[in-house]
DNA sequence: CCGAGGATTGACT
DNA sequence: GTCAATCCTCGGG
């Protein structure tokens, strides 16, 4: 159990400007309710160390740039406070949170995090035995590795960011130092590849790249 | 209908 | 440094 008092962030928290939400999410706790092998429900808690902002119509790197509106991106046009999950490279699910107001198709990508000390140990050990490739079982430096650990997939698409969705965010007052970096993996986006829209916990070991 | 490519990762030269 | 894996999405014909 956590010693510091925590509050659950409400969906309305995510309706604020995207860059503010992206910065504020660093240090927050991403919570995932899972069913353990014995049938009991457990909660994994992963503290977020890195995020990226995708700022909508005028952002060439954003799926909704220039008002692109498809079946996949439809959820981006919803009011902030819901999840956007999609499959990339046919392999990895990426976890995003929709931000800002309705019809402003912006989101925050969760890129990295690390398990907190009160995360359930049974699930942790279960996962380690199932995936021996993992060298740092508590650090998840990359958006695909993070979703794999938390067992997040398309089922979460469009769900509200709150405990009834089995994925939610808690704030326990942690406010780490934050640095800005260019976003990763968007070389196709022209000048936007240099925009400082990646928010990292300064010098934290769990970051996805340097 | 079909082809191209991806908000990645891990393995390998 | 290079490259394959793997499949859904998207745009073009």
From TrEMBL:
The record's keywords, sorted A to Z, are:
DNA damage, DNA repair, Hydrolase
Concerning Pfam families, the annotation shows: Pur_DNA_glyco (PF02245)
List its EC numbers. Answer: 3.2.2.-
What InterPro entries does the entry give?
Answer: Formyl_transferase-like_C_sf, MPG, MPG_sf
Source domain of life is: Bacteria
Instruction: Give the record's family classification.
Output: Belongs to the DNA glycosylase MPG family.
Indicate what this protein is called per its UniProt record: Putative 3-methyladenine DNA glycosylase
Source species, please? Answer: Psychrobacter alimentarius
């Amino acid at each position: 159990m956590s010693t510091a008092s925590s509050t659950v962030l409400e969906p309305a928290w995510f309706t604020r400007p995207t860059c503010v939400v992206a910065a504020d999410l660093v240090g927050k706790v991403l919570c995932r309710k899972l069913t353990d092998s014995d049938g009991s429900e457990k909660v994994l808690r992963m503290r977020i160390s890195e995020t990226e902002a995708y700022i909508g119509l005028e952002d060439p790197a954003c799926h909704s740039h220039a008002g692109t509106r498809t079946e996949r991106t439809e959820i981006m046009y919803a009011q902030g406070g819901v999840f956007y999950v999609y499959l990339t490279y046919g392999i990895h699910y990426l976890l995003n949170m929709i931000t800002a107001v309705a019809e402003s198709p912006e989101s925050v990508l969760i890129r990295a995090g690390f398990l907190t000390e009160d995360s359930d140990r049974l699930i942790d050990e279960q996962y380690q035995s199932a995936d021996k490739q993992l060298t740092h079982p508590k650090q998840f430096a990359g958006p695909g590795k993070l979703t794999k650990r938390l067992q997040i997939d398309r089922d979460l698409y469009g769900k509200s960011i709150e405990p009834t969705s089995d994925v939610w965010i808690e704030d326990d007052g942690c406010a780490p130092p934050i640095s800005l970096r260019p976003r990763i993996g968007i070389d196709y986006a022209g000048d936007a590849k240099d925009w400082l829209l990646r928010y990292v916990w300064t010098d934290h070991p769990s970051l996805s790249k340097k």
